[in-house]
Every structure is written in C-alpha cells, then in structure tokens.
Write a structure and sequence with these properties.
The chain contains eight helices and six strands; from the N terminus they run βααβααββββαααα. By secondary structure, the protein is mostly helical. It has a two-stranded parallel sheet with strand order 1-2. The chain has a two-stranded antiparallel sheet with strand order 3-6. Strands 4-5 form a two-stranded antiparallel ribbon. α6 packs across α7 (206-226). The longest helix has 37 residues, at 166-202. The radius of gyration is 22 Å and the shape is globular.
C-alpha cells in the first residue's frame, strides 16, 4: 500500500504498478468509514495477483535516528482478518536516495532484518496483538540500525516475482511505450527550458555557466560513487553516545 503522493512524485514507476494492480494507492489522512475502506482493500487485493500486502506502519519515514510509533489502522485490518504479520526493517536506505537531502548514492550497503512471523489468531484481543507487534518492531529496528556492516552476511538475491496474469502483460505492453515517449518529451522540455533560462540570465557567459554546470554534475556522480557511508554512520553513533 502506498499513498497517492508517491505516484505524483514518481509517476513513471508507480503508474504501471497501479495499472497492473501491484500496488494499492490511497489518500492519506483520517478515514471516516474504516469498514468501507477495509472492504475496498479486500476487493482490490482479491483482484491482484499479489499474495502479500506490504504497508508502512510508521505512516512516514523517520530521519531523526529514532523509530516512530506504529499506526494502528492496518494492524487492525490484519487482526480482524487473521492475516500473519512480519516486521521487515531496512537501514541506510537514505544514502541511496533522499529527496529531503537531495542526495543520491551508488554502491551503498543496505541492512535488512526480518522478524519471526506473528499470528493474530494466537492473541485474545487486539491490544495484546498490538503490543507484541510494537515490541517486535522496536527490537528489530534496534538490531538493524545498530548493526555493523562488516559483520553482516550478504543476502542471496531472491527469485524475482513473476506475474502470471496475461492481462497485466498486455497492459504493460501498452503503457510502457507511452511512458517512454512521455519521459523523452519531458526531458527535452526540461533541457530546453534550463538552457534557455541560463542564456537569458547570463547572456554571453552562458557557455561558461553551462561548462561549470556540466563539471558540477560529473563531480556529483563521482562523489556519489566513491563516498564511504561508514564515516557518516560512525558520526551518528558518536552523537547518540
């Protein structure tokens, strides 16, 4: 499940997933009729070829170095439908792509942890189930975030998921060329507008400015490819102490 804002920010990635029912997009905020919302999830999930549903129970990402308390809505859904729950934590993702810090990195190490599966039918009420999920989340979060990269085993690449729905194949066959054409036109528009703006502002200095801009872009890629994220992590650990 993902909020609609992600589709607006990353349309070329999210639209095909939504079109082939690989993601459920919802409007974030207070949901007036939770019964109707849960019924909508049931219907959309039944129409999808996915066998599991991934949710982000913090509501949004925390970049403060501390985990946020879990939202209860989708955990209520899992408890009511007796759907097994597993906590999956990923650490150091912000060093790969952070739109807040405007940072992109290559060759980064992402730490991933998986908890034991939690079965809702083993608990008499939701509060007991919620307490176990929260404590499991907190323990997994601490283990992943404080792990030493050099001591971790490299995970084997999983077998890729293969969608067996032929309708989705034809949907992608239709939408991917349209997206590619739209992306090319968007890039052309951005380049022409950027160059035109530089020429209007800089006049005869436009070649120099474009040259400096090109050098800055190349330097940024070199920095992203060679930066050692272990130094920043050690700095964060010293601040916590």
């Amino acid at each position: 499940m993902s909020r609609w804002a992600v589709a607006y920010v990353f349309p070329f990635f999210m639209i095909p997933m939504w079109f082939t029912r690989l993601v459920l997009l919802f409007k974030r905020g207070s949901i007036a009729d939770k019964v109707a919302f849960n019924a909508w999830i049931d219907k959309e999930w039944d129409r999808s070829t996915q066998t599991a549903l991934g949710v982000y129970p913090e509501g949004h990402r925390s970049t403060t170095g501390k985990s946020l308390p879990l939202k209860r809505g989708m955990l209520h859904y899992a408890f009511d439908r007796k759907i097994p729950v597993q906590v999956v934590i990923g650490g150091n993702k912000e060093s790969i792509l952070s739109e807040k810090k405007m940072v992109v990195g290559f060759g980064r190490t992402v730490r991933v942890g998986y908890s034991e599966v939690i079965f809702p039918d083993k608990y008499s009420d939701f509060e007991a189930f919620m307490a176990v999920v929260q404590s499991t989340w907190d323990a997994e979060w601490r283990e992943v975030m404080l792990a030493d990269n050099s001591a971790l085993e490299e995970l084997e690449e999983p077998v890729p998921y293969r969608d067996v729905d032929p309708a989705n194949f034809f949907k992608l066959l239709f939408i991917c060329p349209l997206e590619a054409a739209a992306f090319v036109q968007l890039m052309k528009w951005c380049v022409f507008r950027s160059v035109g703006g530089i020429q209007r502002v800089c006049g005869t200095w436009d070649s120099t400015v474009l040259g400096l801009l090109g050098c800055w872009i190349v330097a940024s890629f070199v920095y992203a490819a060679t930066w050692d994220d272990s130094d920043e992590r050690r700095g964060r650990e010293r601040k916590r102490r």
